[in-house]
Specification:
mainly alpha, 3 helices
Protein backbone atom coordinates (compact mmCIF):
# COMPACT_ATOMS: atom_id res chain seq x y z
CA UNK A 1 0.00 0.00 0.00
CA UNK A 2 1.42 3.37 -0.95
CA UNK A 3 -0.03 5.39 1.91
CA UNK A 4 2.52 4.98 4.70
CA UNK A 5 0.02 6.06 7.34
CA UNK A 6 -1.49 2.58 7.32
CA UNK A 7 1.74 0.58 7.21
CA UNK A 8 3.61 2.11 10.14
CA UNK A 9 3.63 0.18 13.35
CA UNK A 10 4.77 3.04 15.56
CA UNK A 11 2.98 6.01 17.06
CA UNK A 12 5.18 8.49 15.18
CA UNK A 13 2.29 10.30 13.53
CA UNK A 14 -0.76 12.07 14.90
CA UNK A 15 -3.86 9.96 14.85
CA UNK A 16 -6.42 12.71 14.44
CA UNK A 17 -9.21 12.02 11.98
CA UNK A 18 -8.83 15.36 10.17
CA UNK A 19 -5.14 14.69 9.50
CA UNK A 20 -5.94 11.22 8.22
CA UNK A 21 -8.60 12.60 5.87
CA UNK A 22 -6.16 15.19 4.53
CA UNK A 23 -3.43 12.60 3.99
CA UNK A 24 -5.80 10.26 2.17
CA UNK A 25 -7.16 13.05 -0.02
CA UNK A 26 -3.62 14.04 -1.01
CA UNK A 27 -2.69 10.40 -1.68
CA UNK A 28 -5.69 9.73 -3.92
CA UNK A 29 -5.25 13.02 -5.78
CA UNK A 30 -1.60 12.12 -6.45
CA UNK A 31 -2.60 8.60 -7.50
CA UNK A 32 -5.22 9.82 -9.97
CA UNK A 33 -3.64 12.99 -11.37
CA UNK A 34 0.17 12.67 -11.04
CA UNK A 35 1.11 8.98 -11.20
CA UNK A 36 1.32 7.43 -14.67
CA UNK A 37 0.04 3.86 -14.53
CA UNK A 38 1.85 1.11 -16.36
CA UNK A 39 -1.23 -0.55 -17.85
CA UNK A 40 -2.95 2.67 -18.92
CA UNK A 41 0.26 4.55 -19.84
CA UNK A 42 -1.59 7.67 -18.69
CA UNK A 43 -3.10 8.82 -15.42
CA UNK A 44 -6.58 7.63 -14.41
CA UNK A 45 -7.81 11.23 -14.57
CA UNK A 46 -6.67 11.45 -18.19
CA UNK A 47 -8.34 8.13 -18.97
CA UNK A 48 -11.59 9.42 -17.46
CA UNK A 49 -11.36 12.64 -19.48
CA UNK A 50 -11.05 14.90 -16.44
CA UNK A 51 -7.74 16.43 -17.52
CA UNK A 52 -5.66 16.48 -20.69
CA UNK A 53 -2.15 16.48 -19.19
CA UNK A 54 -0.14 14.85 -16.41
CA UNK A 55 -0.01 17.08 -13.37
CA UNK A 56 3.15 17.63 -11.38
CA UNK A 57 3.14 17.94 -7.61
CA UNK A 58 3.09 21.75 -7.77
CA UNK A 59 -0.13 21.62 -9.82
CA UNK A 60 -1.65 19.34 -7.22
CA UNK A 61 -0.96 21.72 -4.35
Amino acid sequence: MACRRFTRLTNAFRKQLDNLKAALALHFAWYNFVRIHRMLRITPAMAAGITDHVWDFADLL
